[in-house]
Amino acid sequence: MPLPYSELVMEHFKHPQNVGRIEDADAKATEGSPACGDMVCVYLKVDSETQRIEDIKFESYGCASNIATGSIITELAKGKTLEEAKELTWKQASDALGGLPPIKTHCSVLAIDGLRAAIENYEERHGLVTERVPTTIDVVRKRLKRVMNPVVGLDLVRTKLVTDIELSNGSVRVALDLPADHQFANNMREEIVEKIEPLWDVDEVVVEFTD
After folding, report:
1. Residue 17 has what DSSP assignment?
2. Do the Cβ atoms of 67 and 59 come closer than 8 Å?
3. In the chain, N or C terminus with fewer CB closer than 10 Å?
4. Angle, nearest 10°, between helix axes 185-196 and 137-144?
5. What CATH number does the domain containing 176 carry?
């Protein structure tokens, strides 16, 4: 039985471009979940004067389509300005690969979401957000859905580890139903701070372990 993928998909799957991480990245973002089947992490290096993407890499967990779309998205975005990269669509990614099976379309959507989330992370960290909507508990909770519980591969909200969220004068407090000496406690704390601290009106992120 022939594979349901184009030659281009298979080429990017077997020889993906821009794989890996950028240790001193200006921004990064993770979308998806291994428990749901696919996950992608996107790293950016950006020229602060021109706002052009100088380097971009990705890490992927998932199927051939997930790896191929991560590869093609990074190729399409490299060298573009942030504004130009924002305009890239999942359809462009799919077309650049010669098309994807309908059941795998979500992989190109995931790759685009990862790119846009990384751009958003850069803009927040560098004070480039023009629409400054006050941070709410719902905003914090949405960001916590991007933080994985490594034990089960689902996010902190769905695994009900988040027991409380408080906002007060620029301070965000997140309580987790987890022992402070848990093997993944420090990793989760770092990821929570990384996701929430860039918000324009957040000065401090406090993570408490309540178990």
Report:
1. S
2. no
3. N
4. 130
5. 3.30.300.130
Compute the distance between CA of residue 205 and CA of residue 13 in angstroms, rounded to an integer: 39
Angle CA 52–66–159, to nearest 5: 100
pLDDT one-digit tens code per residue, 2-43: 557 788 899 998 999 999 999 999 999 988 766 556 789 999
Q: Are residues 59 and 106 in the same domain?
A: yes
Report how many domains make up the chain.
Answer: 2
Residue 132 lies inside a defined structural domain of this protein: no
Supply the residues annotated as catalytic: 36, 107
Query: How far is the CA of 45 from the CAs of 20, 54, 156, in angstroms?
Result: 13, 6, 28
- CB contact at 8 A, 114 and 41: yes
% pLDDT > 90, the chain: 63
Q: What's this model's pTM, rounded to 2 decimal places?
A: 0.75
Residue with tokens 């389509």: 65
